[in-house]
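Support request from a user on the community tier.

User writes: "When I paste my structure tokens into the form, the page sometimes reloads and wipes my input. The last time it worked, I copied everything first. Here is what I submitted, just in case something in the input itself triggers the reload:"
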């Protein structure tokens, strides 16, 4: 039988794992077994934190919109209710950006809803 050298694929896998763990502390950046374990945990945390991030941004947008609404004489809940009834399809992200960077446009929207 002919000789089969099988190092290429496993080496590639190891290199890939160690590339992903660059910057980790202690042996988890250089030792394959520890690196694999660290990557598994990192993946779990990443999944959960991406979910949390969405909620955090939504909270931030609500705070920005509420602040701008208060300046224009209404509360956040009243503003959002009137937006829905007026069929204005702006989401919270866009409204928060308008409130922060273009307050005059936000004031016009609030004036229309009154």
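"...and here is what came back when it finally went through:"
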């Amino acid at each position: 039988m002919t000789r089969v050298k099988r190092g290429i694929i496993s080496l590639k896998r190891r290199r890939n794992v160690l590339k992903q763990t660059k910057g980790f502390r202690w042996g988890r950046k250089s030792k394959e077994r520890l690196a694999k374990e660290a990557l598994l945990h990192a993946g779990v945390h990443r999944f959960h934190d991406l979910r949390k991030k969405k909620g955090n941004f939504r909270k931030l947008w609500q705070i920005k919109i509420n602040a701008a609404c208060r300046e224009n004489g209404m509360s956040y809940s009243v503003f959002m209710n009137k937006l829905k009834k007026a069929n204005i399809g702006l989401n919270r992200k866009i409204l928060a950006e308008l409130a922060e960077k273009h307050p005059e446009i936000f004031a016009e929207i609030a004036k229309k809803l009154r």
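Agent notes: The reload is a front-end session timeout and is unrelated to the input. The chain has a mean pLDDT of 95. The radius of gyration is 26 Å. Escalated to web team.
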